Amino acid sequence: MRTKRPRLITWLCLALPAVIIVSVFLTGCGGDEEAATPPTTGETSESETSESSGEADPSETSVSLIVEPTETPVPMTPTPTSAPSVEDEDMVYIEGGEFIMGSDDHEPDETPQRKAYVDSFNIDKYPVTNAEYKEFVDDASHPAPRNWKAGIPEGKEDHPVTWVTWEDASAYAEWAGKRLPTEAEWERAARGADGHIWPWGDEFDSAKCNSSESSIKDTTAVDAYPVGASPDGVIDMAGNVWEWTDTWYDAYPASTHRSDRYGEKYKVIRGGSWFDNRSMVRSSARNKGEPTFMFSTIGFRCAQ
Q1: Domain boundaries 91-299, corresponding CATH code
Q2: Bond preceding residue 160 cis, omega within 30 of 0
Q3: Cβ–Cβ under 8 Å, residues 304 and 247
Q4: pLDDT of 104-138, one tens digit each?
Q5: Helix or strand holding residue 58 (H, E)
Q6: What's the sign of the alpha-carbon dihedral 298, 227, 277, 92?
Q7: With 60 as the cut, is the pLDDT of residue 40 above it?
Q8: DSSP 88-130
Q9: Read out DSSP for 8-43?
Q10: Where are the chain's structural domains?
């Protein structure tokens, strides 16, 4: 007679294999919960790709850069250093480029004649007048010129200011939001790109400027000689008053001329005055003065 096994033991014997099989199945199908969770966007993010492989997947990069076609950009045209002044209608815009500077036919310090280059700039159409300078004197509490005994000399409000040093001229320019022109800028504005001897051309005409030939023997209004304008329309650049520039008086590049006055001693003045003859009011003629020097024949105009 065969002995009966208890029902509990029989049930365990039958259930244990099934539990083992189910456990093995679940282990094989399971995994890291984070890795099994798909990205919310439906594709692997760039940061996740970089972290897992150390670099972006090229295929992923190409997909993410799909955009609407655009027109090929047009190369930008270089802009000039300065633009035409929109704030001061009494300034003239001079386009940058090469121009003829100096002369081989006159004074040694003008040699050698050569092609020089300037960036685009703006320059005052006229020299600074007494009336304009008075605004500066009043607003900045700057000392008045020595010839203003009781204010601007009568009838000379529109004449160029004189008896001003280079330091005075620089202070005015800064107050006005401008600067003094360089010697090269001044000459370019006076004679144009083609190198005229005088602003209006190569033939002297005493009716086009206030020089000694006019026999006026004093300053005139800055707009008295519109017929003597330069090719760009800058007026009164020959005669009337010498004009301060921001350049130290020195030899030109490649010049063989030597002078103990060269160096950082004198500032260049240009244009000649009512006292000077036709040769000294040429557009290439140079003169000089110490920064603290002043005289009845020296004024200035500004640039920007």
Answers
A1: 3.90.1580.10
A2: no
A3: no
A4: 999 999 999 999 999 999 999 999 999 999 999 99
A5: helix 58-64
A6: positive
A7: no
A8: -TTEEEE--EEEEE--SSS-GGGPSPEEEEE--EEEESSPPBH
A9: HHHHHHHHHHHHHHHHHHHHHH---HHHHSPPTTSS
A10: 91-299
